[in-house]
Amino acid sequence: MEGAHGGHPMTAFDAELAKARKDISALELLAQRDPRDPEKRVRLAYRQFHQASLTGSESDFRAAKQTCAEMIRDFGPKEDICLLEANIAGRFHCLAEARQALQMCPSLARRMAGRSLLADLDFQEGRYDQAHAAWEDLIAEQRTWDNLARLAHWKGKLGQIDEADQLYEEAAGDLTAKEMRSFAWIEVQRGALALSHGRPNQARAHYERASRSYSGHWYTDEHLAGSLAAEGKPEEALALLQKVSARVPKPELKQTCGELLRFLGRADEAQPWLQAAEQAYLSSAQEGAVHYYHHLADFYADAGSQPAEAVKWARKDVALRANFSTQSALAWALYQSGDAAEGLAWIRRALASGVQDAGIFATASAIFNACGDAAEGGRYARAAAAINPNGQNFHMHH
Amino acid sequence: MADHNDPNAVNSIFSDIDYSAADLYDLFGFPTNGNRSALLALTFSATPRAGELDSDVLYRLLLTSHPRVAFAKPPEVSLESLLGYFEAVKDKYLGELKTAEVRVTVLKDQRALLKFIGFPGGNFSTEIAFDQVVPIKTPDGQTIQAFIGGRDDAFFNDLTGFFRSINYAPQFYHVPHTMTEARELPIPKTLLELEGNDLFNYRPDLPKWGFTQRDGTTPKLDLPPGPWEWKGNRFKKDADGNYRFVYDGSDCRAGQNCNAIILEIPHSFITKDTGRDRIVNAWGESWVLKAAHKVESIPDEPSWLKHPWKVLRERELDDELRQYKLVDTDGQPFADAALSEREDDRQLGANNFWLGPHFVKRLAHLGWGFGPSISALGLETSFDHDHSPVSVHRVYDSAIAAFPRATRTLFQPLNMPDDSWNPKGLDIPLRRPFEIFVPNVCAIDMDTTGTWPFGRRLEDQVATRFLAMFLDMSASLNGKPYHLDLLGDPALWAAAPIVPKTPPNPLKNDKEFLATFPYLADPWPGAW
After folding, report:
1. Which residues on chain B are in Cβ contact (under 8 Å) with A333?
2. A38-75 residue pLDDT tens
3. Distance between CA B309 and CA B300 in Å, rounded?
C-alpha cells in the first residue's frame, strides 16, 4: 500500500490505524445524527478501543471510556458496553472498577468473554488456581485462541515453559490472515517467554516473525529492542527504542531509554529521559490513575534511587492487586530501603505462588542473603541462573 | 517488571463483525447444454467489492457424480430406519465416492488460479482474469466455461419476514454480541402473527423496522428486558377477521451484489460414465489463509494426543489446504440457516451426517410453529401438531420424542407443481426432505431441469418451497395435489383471510437473469 508516508509502503500497523480512524470519523457522524441508536455508539466505542489498543495512547483509551460512560448514562448498562468498560478498567489496573462494570450486567459472568475477564482479574489479584481452573474450563468448552494464550501466560509464569509455548503455538494456529496483529502479538509473547528463559536467539526469531507478519507495530519493536539489549547490543537497542519512543508517548519507554543510556555510561544524556518518565508517572498518579504505581516503584527503586518513594508506590500497588509481581516489587523496594526483614516477608508471599521467574528469584536471593540466610540466597541465585543464564544482562521493562 | 501487556491486554473482546469474503451465500446447480453440462454458481459476499476478490480466501467447489439410486424403502418408517439411512449415506460419501474439486485462489494481480483436481480427465490448472467469460480447455479436449467476478446477488427473499417468523431478535433489536440467548427468542415460530406478540408483530408506525436499508443500516429498537415470552393463545386477527402475515414479499437483497464463481462443466468431464452417473452432487467451501502461512510456512502439525480429531482431518488435507482454515460451507439452501441454526461448529458441508438427530429435532421444533399456521389458513399440514389452534414453542432434547411428530414431514415425497421438471418423463422418484438435507449437497439430477430439489435453478423460489415441506403433499386444493410452489401462488393468498395478500417471498429476482452463460445478471453499479 503506497502513499501517506512519503512514498514508503504503508505498514500493516499504519493501514489498520488509518482504517480505525476513518471508521471512527464515520461512526461519530452517524452517532451525532442519531444519538438514540445504541448500535452505532457501541460500534464507535469499540472502534475507539481498537484505535487505543493500536496507539497505546491514554487519551484514546479515555475517549473510549467516555463513550462507554455516556452510553451507560443514556441507555443503561448493556452487556457489550459493560464488557468494554471492564476491559479498559482491567487494562489500567482498576480491578475493582472492572468488577463493578461486570456486575452492572450480572449475565456477563455467564458469558465466555465475561468469564475470561473475571479470570484475568483473579490472576491479577493473586488467585492463580481460580484463574487456572476458569481458563481450563473455558478451553474445554471452546478452544479459542485468546483463552489458549491466557493459559499459556499462566503456565509460562508458573514455569511450564514448554507447555506454555505449545499453547501459544496452538493459539497462533487458530488465527487466520485476517488476524495478523493477534498473530504478531502471540509471536511477541513467545519471544518474551524465550527471552525470560535465556534464549535470546529464539526470542529474536519470534520477534522478527512478528515484525514480518504485522509490520510497523511499535509493540514488536519495543520487544525487539529488549532482545537486542539482552543480546548485549545496548547501542542498537537504544537506537531502536528512541525511534519507538518518538512514535509512542509512553513514559516507560522513556525510562528504558534513560536506563540504557546510563548503562552505556551516558548519565547526562540519561537524565532528561528519566525525568520525563518520572514526571509522566507522577502526573498520571496525581490525576488518579493507578496503572503507573508499578513503574513508580520500579523507577524509584532502581533508576531514581529513592527507595522510600519506591516503597510508598509499591505498597499502593500491592494494596490494589496482590500478586507475585507486585509483592516482589515491594520486597525489592523494602530491601533497597534497608528493610530486608519486611522484604523477606513479601518475597516469601511472592514465592508461595509457585512463580518461576529469574527476576523474582534474583530478588529473593538478594533478600535472603541480606537476612543472613546464605543457603536460601544461594539456592535462589542458582534457580535464577538456571531459568535465565543471561539474567544479569540489561533487561527491559514492558 | 511491569505487566501492562499480559493477557488481559488481549484484544479479543467483541469489536465490529466485518463483512467477510468467506461468507458463502448460495450454491446454484442445474443442467445446461441439453443436459450435457452442469452449471455451478457459488456466490459469496462481495468483499472487498464486486469484481474484486480477497486473496486470503480459497474457494472450493466439490463434485461427485453417481447413479440415481433410490435408497431401499425401509420395512417401516422409523427413527432407526432414518438414522440407518444417514449411516448408509455416510458410508457412501466417506467410502466409495471419489470427490473431485475445482479450487480457486486469487493471485496478486487480481486474476484467479483454478485447479481442477481429481477429475477423470486428469488434473490441470489455469489462470483467468476476473469479470469475463473464459473458455477453459481441459486436457481431454473439452471446454469449461468459467466466470469469476461480480454479479447481481441472485437470492430474492423476504429475509426480514423469515426472521420475523422465527422471532430472530438481532434483526429487530440491538442485541449485544455477548447475548447468545437473545437470538431466536422462546416464542412460537409462526407464519401468522400471534396476538400480543409485541416483540415481533408488524408496527405500522415503523415500516422500515428490521429491514436492512441500502446504506447497510437496519432500523432496530432496544430489546426490552426479559423474559421474552409470549403468553397469548391465538393468532392475531384484524377487525375484518384477517390474519396478519409475517411476510410481506419484500426482496431484501434487491440491488445488492455478490461475487461469484460460475462454471459450466461438461458432465463427461465430471464422470466417464455419464449414462450411469446421472446425479451430480456439489457443495462449496470457503477457507481463509492461516496467519502462520501468511507470513511464512511454519510446520503446524497438531499434537495427536491432544487433538486426535484435528489430526485426522488434517491428514485428509493436502499441503495447500493445510495452510487454510475452513470457514463456511454451502450445499442446500436453508440447510444451515433453518436447520442447523448456523452455528460455526456445524459448518460441515456434505459431512453433516452426524447432524441427523439434530435435523429431526429442529424440524419438529419448526413444525410446531409452522404447522398450526398452515392449519389456521385452512390448508393441510404434514406436521402432527395435535390440532393445536395456534403455534407452539416446543424444543426437543431427544430425536426419539420429536420423530413421531415429524415423520410425515420427513418422509413425504415433495410434489412438483407440474411435469416440466422431468422433461423426458423418466421414472424419477420425487425427493423427500430427509434426502434433501443430509448430506448437505446440491444434488443435480441431470435428467431434470435441475429445479429445486433436483438441483437449484436461479429462478427457484427456494424459501417458499422450503416452507412447503410443512404442507401435506397428499392433500389437494381445487382438485390438484399440493405441491412445492403452492405457497408461491398469488391466487392462494388472494383468497386467504390474510393481509398482506402476497406470497411470502418475491416471485422473481430483481434483475432478469441472462439467457446464456454466466446466467447471473450483471452487478449493480456502486453496490456491494
Report:
1. none
2. 888 999 999 999 999 999 899 999 999 999 999 999 99
3. 15
* pLDDT at residue number B352: 56
d(CA B15, CA B107): 30
Greatest Cα pair distance, chain B, in angstroms, is 84
Q: Render pLDDT for A327-340 as a digit per residue (tens, 0 to 9).
A: 999 999 999 999 99
The pLDDT value given to residue A274: 95
Which residues in chain B are contacts of A181 at CB distance < 8 A?
A: 11
Contacts of A75 in chain B (CB under 8 A): 222
Task: State yes or no: ipTM above 0.90.
Answer: no
Domain extent listing, chain B: 24-155+256-353, 357-440+452-488
Beta strand B173-174 with B221-222: parallel, antiparallel or unpaired? parallel
The answer to whether A183 contacts B291, with C-beta atoms less than 8 Å apart, is yes
B220 to chain A, any CB pair closer than 8 A? The answer is yes
CATH class held by domain A8-110: mainly alpha
Q: Which of B5, B14, B290 lies closest to A80 in CB terms?
A: B14
Predicted confidence at residue A198, as pLDDT, reads 92
User: Chain B window 56-95: which residues touch A at a Cβ cutoff of 8 Å?
Assistant: 56
C-alpha span between B236 and B504 (Å, rounded): 17
Phi, psi of B326 (to 5 degrees): -70, 130
Distance, CA of B9 to CA of A50 (rounded, Å): 12
B9–chain A Cβ distance below 8 A for any pair: yes
Q: Do A78 and B176 touch (CB under 8 A)?
A: yes
Determine which of A1, A13, A19, A39 to mutate to test the interface with B (most B C-beta atoms within 10 Å).
A39
Helix/strand/coil for B326: strand
Q: For chain B, which ranges sit under pLDDT 50?
A: 1-9, 11, 15, 297-313, 342, 344-348
> Taking a contact as any Cβ pair under 8 Å apart, which residues of chain B between 263 and 292 contact chain A?
288-292
pLDDT, tens digit, 9 for 90 and up, residues B355-402:
667 888 889 999 999 999 999 999 999 999 999 999 999 999 888 899
A42:B13 CB<8 A = no
B 162-201: CB under 8 A from A: 174, 176-180
Ordered by start, the domain boundaries in chain A are: 8-110
